[in-house]
Design brief:
binds NADP nicotinamide-adenine-dinucleotide phosphate; alpha/beta; 11 helices; seven-stranded parallel sheet; about 40% helix; disordered N terminus; about 290 residues
């Protein structure tokens, strides 16, 4: 598969990535970097750090991680990748539901800060809903904001009902983002959660935008990619990225993948492309429960 011509990504290598506005008005780069499965193999550690660093060089300064990923090892990899350039980065990490009482959230955040070797987390998410009441987690988030340990808080894998419950709580409207599964094959949010969040100014952060690589051999995606002298991964990303109010966090552990993903921002899908992709990956006919990975 031919890559986009070299001149295309050189032009893209300046730092002016499209940005997404958080409810506070602060902006973050639309295209970031995921870290799930990083840290699982010591042998891959240096390559993973190098990939994240290259992503930072290319302007993908939004990095998503979680205390869950490799039991905290992924946060350690992020710490190494951002060493010396913390102020340029926007770091997102997540508390596990089983830790999400008020005290548990604060303790989990302190552990994450140590692993990340930083004094603050830019956006701290509840990974998915757990048993502790949302008001407990919210109290933890608010204490962490007051102490300066986190700058914003948000949620992940919250469907419309969860979001409505959250926003009805005192302080709930401060939610800065909802990170959910979204890609060509997982379009359910278009019929409910996406317009709901848009209507309330809460940006979506799309995870698994290339369906963990399972989209790569699709026939239609490949045909569109060939027309653009791009790869199927780039077309899958360009399809999500064309919605400029959505953050997108592909995970790439090789420098080649990072360069490709960065260049996906430069691909403008045509009406013909979108029509073919819509037929191959139809939008939802009506609301359906949020899918998770
Ligand atoms: N909140 C949640 O519950 C949740 C759930 C899932 C994911 N996430 C977050 O979202 C991030 C992204 O999702 P994900 O990791 O599940 O899946 P993904 O980003 O859709 O796919 C990652 C896979 O695609 C491969 N890949 C990346 N760029 C490629 C390219 N240009 N060409 C070919 N293959 C490419 C990667 O390979 P290499 O690694 O070899 O480069 C990896 O195997 C995660 O890392 C995590 O930070 C959050």
């Amino acid at each position: 598969m031919a890559l986009r011509p070299l001149f295309a990504w050189v032009l893209m290598s300046s730092h002016d990535l499209p940005a997404v506005e958080l409810p506070s008005g602060e902006t973050v780069p639309q295209l970031g970097q995921g870290t799930w499965r990083m840290g699982e193999s010591a042998r891959k550690r240096e390559a993973e750090i190098a990939a994240l660093r290259l992503g930072l060089d290319l302007g993908m300064t939004l990095i998503d991680t979680a205390e869950m990923y490799s039991d905290g090892v992924a946060e350690g990899i992020v710490a190494e990748a951002i060493h010396g350039r913390r102020d340029d980065c926007f770091i997102v990490t997540k508390v596990l539901p089983e830790n999400s009482t008020r005290a548990g959230t604060i303790a989990a955040c302190e552990r994450s800060l140590k692993r990340l070797k930083t004094d603050r987390i830019d956006l701290y998410l509840l990974h998915w809903r757990g048993r502790p009441g949302l008001e407990e987690t919210l109290a933890g988030f608010e204490a962490l904001i007051s102490s300066g340990a986190i700058r914003y808080w948000g949620v992940s894998n919250f469907d419309v009902g969860d979001m409505a419950e959250l926003l009805a709580l005192p302080g709930g409207t401060a939610c800065a983002s909802n990170q959910v599964l979204y890609n060509l094959r997982r379009r359910g949010i278009e019929a409910g959660l996406l317009p709901w969040c848009r209507g309330r100014g809460i940006p979506i952060m799309a995870y698994s935008p290339i369906e963990q690589g399972r989209l790569l051999h699709d026939r239609v995606l490949t045909a569109v990619a060939i027309r653009h002298r791009a790869t199927p991964a780039q077309i899958a990303l360009a399809w999500v990225l064309r919605q400029r109010d959505m953050m997108v966090i592909p995970k790439a552990a090789s420098e080649a993948h990072v360069r490709e993903n960065r260049a996906a921002l430069d691909i403008a899908l045509t009406e013909q492309d979108l029509g073919e992709l819509n037929r191959a990956f139809p939008p939802p006919k009506g609301p359906r429960p949020l899918e998770l990975l």
